[in-house]
Amino acid sequence: MEDLDPPREEPGAAQRILHTLQCHGLHWDEPVLWQSRRRAAYARARQRLAARGCLFRCDCTRAALGAHGACRGRCQPRQASLRQPSAVRIRVPPDCHIAFEDLKQGLQCVALGRETPDFVVLRKDALDAYQLAVAVDDAAQAISHVVRGADLLDSTARQIFVQQQLDFPTPRYCHLPVITDARGHKLSKQRHAPALDDAKAVANLRCALHLLGQRAPPAQLSGVEPVLAFAAEHWQLARVPHAGSVAAAAAHT
Ligand SMILES: [Zn+2]
To answer: How far is the CA of 11 from the centre of ligand 1 (A)?
Structure first.
């Protein structure tokens, strides 16, 4: 449960997500890991990175940063005297390239040193950064496959870089298209997309399967369990669209 940013979270939102998953028959097979309770693990990972000389403190103001929020090294002469509040960044060699074969999106080659140089692993407000937390959690849970929305495809190279610096294995990745509204916007709270209606779980699953190009479960299947069982049995990754997003307007519901 990615709840690293308490000020930005709506109270009860995490519990509602878990409840919605359960209503849709999507159960978890290990206890839920809450990132907000994992800060000691992230701190240990940072200590290991620091011991390897991979980290540096950065108190550059927004105006001093370059494209993509990159530190341009103006904080380097101040390193010895830097204290909080400063961010902690991980050093990315300028020529660093990360390549991985995504199970849906194919071969991805990212010029990490150019695109997201020296990215943040501890924010200036002392909150753990997402990329480090995810890499640490995936290793702790021995995750073999990460299946998630294609909106996270461009985070993957940073997570793989952190895994490599910490000698963690790299999972297989499969990035699926995210559902958008008819105008191509991701369905999100910021855009006032309505929450999933838990009372329509079967219809929601049928809609998701349709958008993912899968065979429609027979109409007589009426519960989430039989619909999911049919979907799992007939699942064909090759039928999932390659696009980064699919518009909900194409749905038949
Ligand atoms: Zn800096």
So the answer is: 34
